[in-house]
TrEMBL record:
Family per record: Belongs to the LpoB family.
Subcellular location: Cell outer membrane
Protein name in UniProt: Penicillin-binding protein activator LpoB
Organism: Pantoea eucrina
Assembly description: Interacts with PBP1b.
Leader peptide range in chain numbering: 1-24
Biased composition, class Pro residues, residue ranges: 29-59
Amino acid sequence: MIRSLKRSSALMFALMLTGCVVQKQTPAPVEPTTPTTPQPTPEQQPEPVPQPQPVPQPPKLKTINWSASVQPLVANMVQSAGVNPGSVLLVDRIKNSTNGALQSDKATDAIQNALANNGKFTLVTPEQLAQAKQALGLSADDSLNSRSKAIGLARNVNAQYVLYSNAQGDVKSPTLQMQLMLVQTGEIVWSGNGIAQP
């Protein structure tokens, strides 16, 4: 019975489809047009290609001669009376308190180079510094721009002194300030100022 119902419904559907009459549609009317003669146009000159503008030169960065800038300060510090020969010195990274970006790594390197083989101090090596930073949980890139961090790190590497340096004022001609601090007490045993040399 279900089979006959399926057949009869299919047959009924086929009959309905054949009974639908499709109405014939007429195409839209086409209007004839007459061709027009093209008007002669005056020859157009191609627009000139604009010349590229010259690229402006970037501002020249004024470089500072860090070696010449720190050498007199370091020489003065080494000659100071309150320093014990053979002491271990931690050179803190120079702090930038200027009104712009400063090459603090170059300045710190110049201080360390000026202190190398001075006969008065033994410098903390970069390897010792990295190990001490790791032991204290500081990142390797930490610049120690606070005196308390620098003194804590100096105690960890058994340094007797910390050299704290600061560049301040105009970045084109900063004033350098250096302070030699005794790690045990935090006392400043030497201080010096100088203007950076171009």
